[in-house]
Amino acid sequence: METAGELAPSARILLGPGPSNVHPRVLKTLSTPLVGHLDPEFLRVMEETKALLRFVFQTKNALTLPISGTGSAGMEACLVNLIEPGDEVIVGVNGVFGTRMVDIVERCGAKAITMEVPWGNVFTPNHLQDALNSCHRPKLVALVHAETSTGAWQPLEEIAPLVHQAGALFVVDAVTSLGGCPLQIDAWGIDACYSGTQKCLSCPPGLAPVTFNQAALDVIHERKTKVQSWYLDLTMIEKYWGEERVYHHTAPVSMNYALREALRLIQEEGLEARFRRHQRNHMALAAGLNALGLPLAAQEGHRLWMLNSVTIPPGIDDAAARRQLLENYNIEIGAGLGPLRGKIWRIGLMGESSTRSNVLLALSALEEILQKQGYRVTPGAGVGAAQAVYAAA
Fold first, then answer.
1. Are 178 and 200 within 8 A, CB to CB?
2. Is the Cα dihedral 111, 112, 115, 118 positive or negative?
3. What pLDDT sits at residue 5?
4. Measured between alpha carbons, how far is 309 from 261 in angstroms, rounded to an integer?
5. For the chain, how big is the Rg over CA atoms in Å?
6. CA of residue 213 relative to chain centroid, distance
7. Dihedrals phi, psi of 173, to nearest 5 degrees
8. Are 247 and 38 in contact (CB under 8 A)?
């Protein structure tokens, strides 16, 4: 049988909801020779990776490690390890990923109590207090920090005290926020958190960083029932990543190499500098989009730097515009999901993809595509508005 030949995918400019572009150093690291997953040299990589993850998560949590799986595996690992049948769990639903958490909670045999606001909006302490008042004793409260489906940025600092006053654990989805905006696990009182490698960490998809504090570990160790998932059972995984080094599964060695290198790049840039870069590029993009008549869709004052939800003008063919961006400009952006499908585009400025050149290119390309579909814009308005933001920074 003839093969298709050497694999040579296009070098896309990834400005969708993930994955983001990857630094050449990370790609090179993926070709590093393999060693065994219990080799002393790989064990050193594991320890370095845990330390770097603690830096990015801003935590001292001992149980901080990358789950072998995508961000969804991180979501499931946090929930199935902390929840037992019959537990009450409050979940904030304001987009796709809150609905996924509800599904997992129910699969665990627990009772999901949902807080709901319109997609694109965020929750207030009053929303949470109402939900807490409807419970007997919630086991945990789960919120999405950066809702990738809507571009909404959920405040966390004022939520955590209410969660703990109710005797519950606070679980946070940071798949899109880790490494792109402030996230302080210890200072904000977050008990368990999960993320993914392919967003602001700018590593290929395949690992899910997680972190658990002592309160969460106590709940896991005092369970009355077995964890629903054997593969994601942290009582076993922690023995592989801890001093005991008990075999559990064959870790993806190359992906762990890549994550270590991606985290080293973040450390070299510095968290504050990295956050400023994401904020500056978001502000320039938002100004340019607004000049083109494309306002952002998420709740004002709570819009992500890393994922911009853009209102599609009436009469514009959503699918055709995204196809033209890909075919003519080599740019990938994301479509809307669920009730927002056909109503928004999702433009990611995450990690390596968050650059001035990408912002200006995307605005220029969108202007040309909109004009071809009959939408009237002032030539150069988008790029000009973005340039003004950069000049003032």
1. yes
2. negative
3. 84
4. 30
5. 21
6. 20
7. -90, 115
8. yes
Please give the domain boundaries of the chain with CATH numbers for all domains.
Answer: 24-267 (3.40.640.10), 270-392 (3.90.1150.10)
Cβ-based neighbour number of residue 3 at 10 Å = 6
Going edge to edge, which strands form the sheet with 88-93?
63-68, 207-212, 192-194, 169-173, 138-144, 88-93, 111-116
Neighbouring C-alpha atoms within 13 Å toward the C-beta of 280: 19
Euclidean distance between CA atoms 368 and 364, whole angstroms: 7
Q: Are 95 and 119 in contact (CB under 8 A)?
A: yes
Q: Cis link prior to 19 (omega < 30° from 0)?
A: yes
Q: Is 178 helix (H, G, I), strand (E, B) or coil?
A: coil
Tokens of 204: 């290929």
DSSP 286-324: HHHHHHTT--B-SPTT-B-SSEEEEEPPTT--HHHHHHH
User: What whole-number distance in Å separates Cα of residue 228 and Cα of residue 22?
Assistant: 34
CA distance 350 to 346: 12
Tokens of 199: 């967003």
Q: What is the token pair recorded at 370?
A: 């909109």
Helix-helix angle 96-107:71-82, to 10 degrees:
40
CA 146 to chain CA centroid, Å, is: 7
From 106, 77, 84, select the one nearest 223 (Cα to Cα): 84
Q: Residue 51: which H helix or E strand, with range?
A: helix 40-57
Q: Give the Cβ contact number of residue 300 at 10 Å.
A: 7
Mapped onto helix, strand or coil, the DSSP state of residue 168 is coil
For residues 257 and 48, give the distance between their C-alpha atoms in angstroms, rounded to a whole number: 10
Helices 214-221 and 71-82 cross at an angle (nearest 10°) of 60
> Helices marked H in 108-241 — which ranges?
125-133, 160-165, 185-188, 214-221, 234-241
pLDDT-flagged residues of the chain (< 50): none
Please provide residue 152's backbone torsions phi and psi, each rounded to the nearest 5 degrees.
-90, 140
pLDDT on residue 1: 53
